[in-house]
Amino acid sequence: MPSSLLWAVDVFGRVYSLSTAAQQWDQCKEAQLEFKRVTAVQQCCWAIACDHQIYLNVHASDVPIRYKEETYENQRWNPVDGFSDRLLPSDRWQWSDMTGLKHQPLDSFQLPSENWEWEADWYVDENFGGEPTEKGGWTYAIDFPAAYTKDKKWNSCVRRRRWIRYRRYKACNTWAKVPSEQAGLPDPFNDISCGGWEISDEPRGQMSLWAVSLQGKVWFREDIHHLNPEGSSWVEVQVPGEVVQISCGAGDLVWAVLWEGQLLVREGIGRDCPKGSSWVVVESPSPEVGAIHVAVGVNVVWAVTKDHKVWFRRGINSHNPCGSGWIGMVGEMVMINVGLSDQVWGIGAEDRAIYMRQGVTANELSGKAWKALPSLRDSDRAHSSASATAPLLHGQADAPKPLIPKVTSDSFISELVSDRDRREGAVSTPIPEEDQGSEQDDKAPPALVLSHSPSCGPDPQWSNVDLEEAQTHLAVGAASDAAETSSLSSVATYNLGLEEPYGPDEHPLWAWVSGGGCAVDSHSQLSWFNSSAGDPAQTAAWRKQIFEQLSERSKREMDNFRHYEQTVWVKKGTMQWWRDWKPHKWVDVRFALEQYCGTDGSKEGILFIYYTFNEEKKYLHAFINEVTILVPVLSDSKHTFAIYTPERTKQRWPIRLAAESDSDTQCWCPGSLQLALLTMSCCDSRGVQGPPSKQAIWSVTCKGDIFVSEPSPSLEASPYPMFWHQIGGHLRTIECNSLGVVWGIGCDHTAWVYSGGYGESDNQYNANVHFTTDVKSVYIYENQRWNPVTGYTNRGLPTDRYMWSDASGLQECTKANTKPPSPHWTWVSDWTIDYNVSGGTDREGWQYAADFPASYHGSKTLKDFVRRRRWARKCKITTTGPWQEVPPIPLCDVTILPCMAQSKVEQVLLWAISNKGDVLCRLGVTPETPAGTSWLHVGTDQPFKSISIGGAHQVWAIARDGSAFYRGSVSQQNPAGDCWYHIPSPPRQKLKQVSVGRTSVYAVDDNGQSRNLHYLNVYVFTWALACINVNIIVLSLLLQVWIIADKVQGSHSLSCGTVCHRLGVQPMEPKGQSWDYGIGGGWDHITVRGNSLEAPTPHSPLPLRNPEGMNGNVVQS
Amino acid sequence: MQQAMADDKDVLRDVWFGRIPTCFTLYQDEITEREAEPFYLLLPRVSYLPLVTDKVRKHFQKVMKPDDVGEMWFEYEGTPLKWHYPIGLLFDLYASNTTLPWSIFVHFKNFPQQDLLHCPSNSVIEAHFMSSIKEADALKHKGAVVNEMQKKDHKQLWMGLQNDKFDQFWAMNRKLMEYPTEEGGFRYIPFRIYQVTSNRPFIQKLFRPVASDGCPHTLGDLLKEVFPAAIPQNDGQKKYQVMIHGIEPMLETPIQWLSEHLSYPDNFLHISIIPAPSD
């Protein structure tokens, strides 16, 4: 898991961040600013400084935030000048936006704030819908507005071209003041809360920022999204009272606290309305004591009342943002914050320490107990420093200047006190301060009593947030919670005179914490809690001695006796078997796996399956050394898998077995114990040991399982049968080269690098095997038919599809009965409407069509009688595998420079495309450090989707609009190259994926229905159709051309995801001759780019193999 | 720091994968049809005899009449071996400092009722194992951790031991080894001290990992309280060896660390105190 940050402000207004990977707080460097509030999300942190301005700290990323400004230059033809900027009076402006409605000359574009900079000057876009235009980038039409073409025709009367200029957000990793464009904001901000990023779809990265002003008004920052991190303007949101604090969750929850102690819940928040529509009042948890603070997450609401009691709101969900009731929790807090995955953070009322709620899971959102974060500071320095003025918190170079106003978390209340007091007089204070004070004095430690200061009296000024110089003489004995001095707040009147606020043994005193950017959950192993850095135990003599003795013991007792183990072993158990004859069904069987040592020391084994047929005991068996692949098969109730041997492959009938998932013995292990056992046995008998070789062929099945096969030197000549064994983890694509650098990308676009581990997939104590997760969406469709009486309803015709169905309409899929793909997956979200559907949707996600099934479109027309919308629900798998996450940029494609096995390179060229379409070049990738160090962003004019590096550093890429690009001048010394060359696509084809071998270039197009493979003649730059129905193409340096094809004719049916292999590819004939439809069924991705061992003898083209002779099928369930 | 943590995991691995080379010989009184060859096996130290001796039974059954095969039991130099003690403990207690392989006699008759418990099936071992874990957790966390686990978690501990799956076992056992940081250790250390010569099967007392002044207790502190004779006297004469998993940890070793790292899978520190070899 990549590290992320917990943000906090101490009572002196200093901002700190704590990385999940670190063991000490890091103070923000900008010491000249003191902050009173922070609200963090993963990519940035917002804050209110003591100057009441809002500041934004955007975390620097390898991919810069770039915004493309564009404008169109329009021209009309006249017989005198030809094309010129002399337009007709009725025409659009000479410079306009795309629609022509808005006047947009180049010099009208201004940087939105001083935190932006221009990347370069304006230039003309010469790419038109994926095709290169003539120099100048002009596109022609008969008139404005009309269809534009790149070719000038006899009737082309007007032309236009697009100008582009990029601006870049430059204020990263620093606190940048957010411009307040409205000079007349009525009063300063007092509270701020950021969230809402889960309301809309990821690519845009929209966020909500809510703020509360000192007068209790609520403001919403408009238009914050990934490319506009600062947002554009503040909009006031009417509230039925004076708000003191607000909290916005990652989803659609927004709660606020009213001055009077009630709570407000915002309703009507949605994708199209992030501001929501109305407020609902919820009473304070306790009738006598008002609420003072609220914190919301995705599905939770926590509140704190004025007596510091903590409350949890029951029954919150997306349909009921108000919840149903309060539950009192243990602990006394001054504030609470709900972070990612609804994890809860608090600041203790007593000790001002930060607490983390333990045991918060999706099933137990209220968690179990509070756990204080250790003080987490540099202990060595703290202890060794003789002087109390030594820096105690990391990075804290100088102590706060005296006489600077100090702000605390609770100051907003006091501000209100003072504010109201000034306006209405002290009488309006609900509880007399002095009474409360005296009552609590008994409990308060003597050190906390404020020394003769005006603040003890009713003078309202003492508690103003802007403590003036006059107040600095208020020396408080001890820096601690001063809540007892006021009924409403714990005002920070800490000792400002000391240079160093915290003594060597004191904890920092926290005022505010924000976990919105801190990705931890109840399973995280946080290094915060085992801060034994410099623990003398690590070097103690007793420890060393235990290590020595244990290794001596192993030598003594085991080394000379290893041969004892070489005997037969048998594992037995029960399973279920999918019966070979009709009616097919699962029958209970006993199995025995017998393994023995062959005379030559190799391990061999037989699997027996005993069943009863007509009350007669029978068995079937499989020799372990003949097994070509063991494939887990998805099933929502059983752990099933299929065993293939060459013979079984020919029959297209694997042995299908299932371990019951409800049995206690299996559910701990993904893929079941039996499968693990069999896999181990197969690897033993094949002599597969240790990590996969650098030459290994990696593949990913359509289920996301990862398989590896060791190529034989004669792979090209006779690639079958290959033995595939599974590697832990879950991926969507995989890429490798012959130096052992292997990268994969998960369904959730997380990048993973192979860590060199191997072995059992549940091996979390193996240093190279880690927990890996993946998240994907399951989709179902809601279908409706129109009738004249009631309009669209869920009452269809009798012949119609199910009103809740899968994409085909053939299977009924309701929200309730749809399960995750297998028992290994768990739901991590609720059903939500999916607006990202090809064809577009209306505001409610509906797509319309004349009838089922038909082509759907996003807006209703008169001819439409049916409509459907797609619902998505995310599910997550947690497995273990030899993969290390490469944070933080999510990827959609990756490619690694193929090289010959013997070649020595200092740096391995690796390019990738982020899921936003940015092209990235990875720096620092070597065989020793396959993860590399950082991304170098390679600028493009549009988002990209596929990339491939071939021999001699050729980098080819496909843009989202389907056009092909070649990157010039890429070399070992210049890994990012210098510029893009637009290569025309095959006529009328949009390309989808490209792969480059030693010299040849192949690409797959995507026409919606069919996908075809094209071969590029690199001498004349023209494409030729090579094959139809191809999904993925992979080339290696060795003139190997492998594809994953769909609709390949098998013996029983068309199989999808068939691995095929081009025959007859020769240096002089890079197009090859014919296809070998090799390994059938169920593959999603394969990479042969690691295999660079030349075959011993150059082979001649083989005759086309009989498709019946397929091997190593992946089963299609 | 990272390195050190990895090292501690190595200790867990070394402990788990400890094996004792053993030679099983059929006792001479057993009736066979032909001569029984000795059987050699590496016994996992942390396991229990009936869990790993299926092969031994099969080996000897081949040369015996079915009628002559009763419940199998083992004996070392006249001492019947209790199956409910972990194998490593049996070896440390009775056979430390002897030549390897460990030579064990196999019996199929004359079951010593007074010395041994019957072990009709693995479920008996499982029950014994789980009750030890529960007892240990009662000492460590007032039973809170083990009671919070689900049945499948308990099963995972047992299956991990039965199938010799280190990772499966430790994925769960790690929870049993947690403790509140501020307390510096468990409530009490689950330990048992065994002696060959004693009449009592073992010594077990309540012992806290941290002294009242906050100092961590060491193995020496424990022995001082429970078995002072095991501490070498001032004259330097070492009368006893204090063995855990075939090694002699230094008396300075913190008892909490030992409990976390050198406990058997049943979560007890099984400490053997044996007379020091005279040579």
TrEMBL record, chain A:
Single GO molecular function: lipid binding
Subcellular locations according to the entry: Cytoplasmic vesicle, Autophagosome membrane; Lysosome membrane
Cellular component terms per the entry's GO annotation = autophagosome membrane; cytoplasmic vesicle; lysosomal membrane
UniProt entry keywords in alphabetical sequence: Autophagy, Cytoplasmic vesicle, Lipid-binding, Lysosome, Membrane, Repeat, Transmembrane, Transmembrane helix
Q: Which SMART domains match?
A: DysFC, DysFN, TECPR
- Which GO BP terms apply? autophagy
Q: Which residues cross the membrane?
A: 1020-1045
Renumbered to this chain, region (Disordered) spans 381-405, 418-458, 1097-1117
Listed InterPro entries: Beta-propeller_rpt_TECPR (IPR006624), Peroxin/Ferlin (IPR006614), TECPR1-like_DysF (IPR010482), Tectonin_beta-prop (IPR051513)
Using the record's annotation, list all stretches that form the Peroxin/Ferlin domain: 64-125, 137-170, 773-834, 845-878
Superkingdom of origin organism = Eukaryota
Which family is it part of? Belongs to the TECPR1 family.
Which protein, by its recorded name, is this?
Answer: Tectonin beta-propeller repeat-containing protein 1
Automatic annotation (TrEMBL), chain B:
Family annotation (Pfam families): ATG5_HBR, ATG5_UblA, ATG5_UblB
Autophagy protein ATG5 alpha-helical bundle region domain segment(s): 124-178
Question: Which GO molecular function annotation, any one, does this entry have?
Answer: Atg8-family ligase activity
Q: Which GO terms describe its cellular component?
A: Atg12-Atg5-Atg16 complex; autophagosome; mitochondria-associated endoplasmic reticulum membrane contact site; phagophore; phagophore assembly site membrane
Superkingdom of this protein's organism: Eukaryota
One GO biological process from the UniProt record? Answer: regulation of skeletal muscle tissue regeneration
UniProt domain Autophagy protein ATG5 UblB: residue ranges: 188-273
Q: Which keywords label this protein?
A: Acetylation, Apoptosis, Autophagy, Cytoplasm, Immunity, Isopeptide bond, Membrane, Ubl conjugation
Localization, UniProt = Cytoplasm; Preautophagosomal structure membrane
Q: How does it sit in the membrane?
A: Peripheral membrane protein
Domain spans labelled Autophagy protein ATG5 UblA:
15-108
Q: What does this protein do?
A: May play an important role in the apoptotic process, possibly within the modified cytoskeleton. Its expression is a relatively late event in the apoptotic process, occurring downstream of caspase activity. Plays a crucial role in IFN-gamma-induced autophagic cell death by interacting with FADD.
- Family statement: Belongs to the ATG5 family.
Provide the assembly information: Conjugated with ATG12.
Official protein name in the record: Autophagy protein 5
Q: Which organism is it from?
A: Scleropages formosus (Asian bonytongue)
User: What is this protein's gene name?
Assistant: ATG5
